[in-house]
Amino acid sequence: MWDYTDKVKDYFLHPRNVGEIKDADAVGEVGAIACGDALRLYLKLDKKNGNRIADAKFKTFGCGSAIASASALTEMVMGKTLEEAEKITNQDIADFLGGLPPEKMHCSVMGKEALESAIANYRGYKAAPTEEGAIVCKCFGITDVKIERVVRENRLTTVEQVTNYCKAGGGCKSCHPDIQGIIDKVWEKEVKPVAVPAKPRKMSNLRKMQLIQETIERDIRPVLMMDGGDMDLIDVDGNTVYVSFRGSCAECAGSRVTLKSTVEAKLREFVTEELVVEEVNQ
What we know:
The chain has helices at residues 6-13, 64-77, 82-85, 90-96, 105-123, 144-154, 159-166, 176-190, 205-225, 248-251, 255-270, and strands at 26-32, 37-46, 52-61, 135-137, 142-143, 229-237, 240-247, 276-279. By secondary structure, the chain is α+β, with helices and mostly antiparallel strands. The protein contains eleven helices and eight strands. Helix content is 45%, strand content 19%. It has three domains: 1-128, Sufe protein. Chain: A (Alpha-Beta Complex); 129-192, Orthogonal Bundle (Arc Repressor Mutant, subunit A); 205-279, 2-Layer Sandwich (GMP Synthetase, Chain A, domain 3), CATH 3.30.300.130.
């Protein structure tokens, strides 16, 4: 027996906004009675108030979770603009009800899809392509496109979860390998290859000196001169760079900070990360 929250029971036993709107501005319909669940959602907009949803009603054929999810959805969209309403996710519907049993999450998905269908109907185009694509689950007529979408939006990783969220694989189970293949494909796309740090290129002392001098002239000296300071390159010994501050920098109490946060940082960025900068007084 599934563990329903008190709110799910309330919205099932005392559903809000059941019925239809005769002059509805938008109607969305998803599911099929033959598959066990069907939902039709009606929306009426207040065109004098920024097209906010003034009324929402539903008719559904399904279980208690389907009725509760559809009822909750009508309450959630009331007073919202279409742009605000379309941000509602199936997880939001489940959360509104205090949670749904994992096996009944497909009811919240059906609510989200009905809302998308209604908004698309109002705007004059087809809803998201949940019906397009190749049929994977023949028992419930679920396509690869819908499975992929549900997997990505809800971060699903198992066939059982897919069945809970869209019923695919809940019949004869012959499609389970195909569903697992879709799951693997989705997350393979999400995994980014780990970049292997390139080995530092061996640099001649002459080239290192050239890059250090160029970086000082291009990226460091102009910054120091803005505050009346300056700097001279004194020597380079291996990866240690010796410099001497001039002007206001030579008298500044924060010269040590400037040495590390500006001079050393820039040289490490444009020359090599192995460099260490030291100040000498001359």
